[in-house]
Design goal:
The complex is a heterodimer of chains A (317) and B (270).
Chain A: H1 11-18, E1 24-27, H2 36-44, E2 50-53, H3 59-67, E3 71-76, H4 84-90, E4 107-110, H5 113-125, E5 130-132, H6 139-142, E6 153-156, E7 164-168, E8 175-183, E9 189-190, H7 198-204, E10 207-215, H8 218-223, E11 228-230, E12 237-240, H9 258-267, H10 271-283, H11 288-295, H12 297-305
Parallel strand pairs in A: 1-2, 1-8, 2-3, 3-4, 8-10, 10-12
Antiparallel strand pairs in A: 5-7, 6-7, 8-9, 9-11
Chain B: H1 24-33, E1 41-44, H2 48-59, E2 65-68, E3 72-73, H3 86-90, E4 94-95, H4 98-103, E5 111-115, E6 118-119, E7 125-126, E8 129-130, E9 138-139, H5 146-152, E10 156-159, H6 186-190, E11 198-202, E12 206-210, E13 217-222, H7 228-233, E14 240-247, H8 253-262
Parallel strand pairs in B: 1-2, 1-5, 5-10, 10-11, 13-14
Antiparallel strand pairs in B: 2-3, 3-4, 6-7, 8-9, 11-12, 12-13
Helix pairs in contact in B: 1-2, 2-8
The chains are: A alpha/beta (317), B alpha/beta (270).
Chain lengths: 317, 270
């Protein structure tokens, strides 16, 4: 079925093709554009020793990957208090049910949201370093983990002798991943909602995978070009994954699934709990349709009815 | 440096009378919100700042502009929701990206509000880790946009509820967002930080400001019903007190009801 120009892949195909062990993954996620389904598939295929980058909004994907002990290092600016797998992989009191401290640790290099956004901008535009007005004097500048001197530096402006300014290295993840509302099969992507730094993250990545609610026609994209996120020639793979942000809400399509999130948080209070959750919702689920069936039609109908709209181009699943 | 006025300290209690019951968290939110004026452009961080600005919009500043770092500008959700909730985007006038919001629009706002896990004697803020950074007791959220907002905003108010000595230490465990470092306003200029630094801290116990030169925090006024001893017990250093120590007007019944109506899902008023 794939035409010459088609970027269409199934989700398992896209993960197999683009995510290798040790890869650096960048996750978008502003306005709910979180490809939770992609994170599930990475876990299911057993990828290990991954690195993770994000400007704030990708934290729920990191939490899943950390729960699966698939990520070693993360350059991030924000996690949520509900990200208990991340907390467990960082905090000192972490012990398993037998009172033994887990040997799995996540190393974090802390940045700010603007810092990660500018690092993606530098990556996307092939600038070798980029100045930033914030960060100076903070522990973000002083305390470094795995990046050491490569985390940031200061320099004097070549245009004035006095202005000493912080500079950051670019970030260019191996794969940039985003879930979005619509795309055509050539990979022309529509994205609704606040931009966050998703545009720069995807552009900075060496390969770009976008999962979408629905594949639409090229005519449809043209009609709604004010929402076009990226032209197809920039995109390496498009996967149709309805409810791909579930249990998070996606602007224009569905609200978050609060009870599902609550159950996830409850389970991920311990590693054993998360492992059990992952067996139930990732490893024992053969196909995406099975996952949706398990979430339940009523549930999906409810979150769809509760959707919030920024572009009013809802076309249903 | 001009200190911004917390207008609540001079505001009359409204004619509807005082409320017999309000939580301390509600008092902190209402007091902080009183510093927002009609048509102010307000940049909000995660947590209490969100409901603070939305309450001001419902209460006395319907045309203030509320924006946040993910690129949501001039928004007006009917109920208080988490910062990342799509309702914020649905009700916005302008959607943009983080670089636009945090590196450009921020220079044109009137005031930014940030929450904090720890605030120290010199207004340095921690939202990253409690305990040793390399082996933390608690990992919190990290900077998000806090460092950028605190480094760049032309005016800054910090909001905290449940003030206690461990959250108000002599020095923060990790300096996510600098205030006045070890006691020098000048250092901000030396580091070329464009923002003013914190001009006020509002907690459930009181309203605090910072000395002109040293940037050391002092108690400006107490929340209604709070004693000076309570503030001292819940502060991790020997805090200075303003000569004319004021008392914040008690939240009115009307304010409390309006605040509660804004958060029916108890996202912030747990």
């Amino acid at each position: 079925m794939y035409s010459f120009m088609s970027k269409l892949r199934t989700l398992p195909e896209a993960v197999r093709e683009f995510v290798h062990n040790g890869a650096e993954l960048g996750f978008a996620g502003s306005g709910g554009r979180l490809s939770i389904a992609f994170a599930y598939e990475v876990i299911k295929q057993g990828r290990k020793n991954l690195s993770f980058v994000s400007a704030g909004t990708g934290a729920p994907c990191l939490d899943l990957l950390v729960g699966a002990r698939a990520v070693k290092k993360a350059e991030i600016s924000f996690t949520m208090v509900s990200c208990l797998n991340i907390k467990r992989a960082v905090e000192k009191k972490t012990v398993d049910s037998r009172g033994k401290r887990s040997t799995y640790r996540l190393q974090i290099e802390d940045y700010s949201n603007l810092a990660m956004s500018l690092r993606f901008f530098a990556g996307a535009t092939k600038i070798p370093f980029i100045p930033i007005r914030s960060l100076r004097g903070s522990d973000i500048e002083k305390i470094r983990t795995f990046m050491g001197k490569g985390k940031m530096a200061t320099m004097t402006s070549p245009f004035s002798d006095k202005t000493r300014i912080a500079v950051l290295p670019p970030s260019e993840p191996d794969v940039g991943v985003m879930h979005s509302q619509y795309a055509d099969e050539e990979g022309n992507v529509l994205a609704l909602g606040p931009a966050g730094s998703d545009g720069w993250l995807l552009r900075a990545a060496k390969k770009r995978v976008v999962t979408v609610e629905k594949i639409v026609s090229k005519e449809f994209v043209k009609e709604h070009k004010v929402h076009t996120f990226m032209p197809g020639f920039m995109v390496d793979a498009v996967c149709e994954v309805p409810y791909g942000a579930h249990p998070y809400g996606l602007v224009d399509c569905y609200d978050l699934d609060a009870s599902f999130q609550k159950d996830y948080s409850e389970k991920s209070k311990s590693q054993e709990g998360f492992d059990e959750w992952a067996r139930e919702w990732i490893f024992r689920v053969n196909e995406r349709s099975e996952y949706l069936k398990k979430v339940g039609e009523d549930n999906l109908g409810r979150i769809t009815n509760q959707r919030f709209s920024t572009g009013n181009i809802f076309v249903g699943n | 440096m001009e200190e911004s006025q917390i207008k609540g300290s001079v505001q009359e209690t409204s004619s509807s009378g005082t409320s017999s019951s309000f939580s301390r968290r509600e008092a902190a939110i209402i007091t902080a919100a009183r510093s927002i004026s009609e048509r102010d452009v307000v940049f909000v961080g995660q947590g209490l700042p969100v409901i603070t600005a939305l309450f001001a919009k419902r209460d006395h500043a319907p045309n203030c502009v509320v924006m946040h770092e993910y690129g949501v500008v001039d928004t007006d959700p009917p109920v208080a929701v988490e910062l990342a909730h799509p309702l914020f985007a649905e009700k916005a006038i302008y959607l943009c990206d983080m670089i636009d919001a945090l590196a450009s629009l921020i220079y044109h706002i009137d005031v930014a509000f940030l929450g904090a896990a720890q605030i120290d004697r010199y207004g340095n803020v921690n939202t990253t880790t409690i305990g040793d950074y390399f082996n933390p007791t608690y990992r919190i959220s990290g900077s998000g946009g806090a460092n950028d907002i605190g480094s760049l905003a032309p005016d800054l108010v910090l909001v905290m509820d449940n003030q206690k000595a461990s959250k108000f230490p002599e020095a923060v465990d990790y300096c996510t967002t600098p205030g006045y470092f070890g006691g020098s306003r000048k250092k901000r200029a030396e580091l070329n930080l464009p923002g003013s630094g914190p001009n006020a801290v509002v907690t459930d116990l009181g309203v605090y400001r910072f000395e002109k030169k040293s940037g050391e925090m002092y108690l400006e006024s107490l929340q209604s019903g709070v004693t000076l001893d309570e503030v001292r017990e819940n502060t991790g250093w020997k805090i200075k007190v303003a000569k004319n120590l004021g008392v914040q007007p008690e939240p009115t019944e009307e304010e409390v009801q309006r605040l509660r109506a804004l958060d029916p899902r108890k996202v912030y008023l747990r």
